[in-house]
From TrEMBL:
InterPro entries: Hydgase_assmbl_chp_CS, Hydrogenase_HupF/HypC. This is HypC/HybG/HupF family hydrogenase formation chaperone. Belongs to the HupF/HypC family. It comes from Sutterella seckii. It comes from the Bacteria. PANTHER family: HYDROGENASE MATURATION FACTOR HYBG, HYDROGENASE MATURATION FACTOR HYPC.
Length: 107
């Protein structure tokens, strides 16, 4: 499974950022995003920054990752699922706009 992870910038070096997540440090390529600063949060995939995120979004992603890990281990209860996926519970799934046009009767 390929998942982008939230990481906090510890230090900057040219087009790279030293980032931390859960006690581990990784050097991340930041050449494709606007210049960040130490303390900023990044969404990182395969040691490359995809985009800057704020701390609230980083926390939401971490909660979803935790809920997913618990579910995969067979240990998730309703509280864990609500904590990780509260934004998806009690609502109908939505198609992206470009797919909605392809489904008859949906606009």
């Amino acid at each position: 499974m390929c998942i982008a992870l939230p990481m906090k910038i510890v230090a900057l070096e040219e087009m790279k950022a030293r980032c931390e997540r859960k006690g581990s440090e990784v050097v991340v390529d930041i050449s494709m995003i606007d210049p960040p600063k130490p303390g900023d949060w990044l969404l990182v995939f395969q040691d490359r920054a995809i985009r800057a995120i704020d701390e609230a979004e980083a926390s939401e992603i971490e909660a979803a990752l935790k809920a997913t890990a618990l579910a995969m281990a067979g240990e998730a209860d309703e509280a864990a699922i609500r904590a990780g996926f509260g934004d998806l519970i009690d609502r109908e799934p939505e198609l992206p706009e470009h797919l909605r046009r392809l489904v008859p009767g949906r606009s």
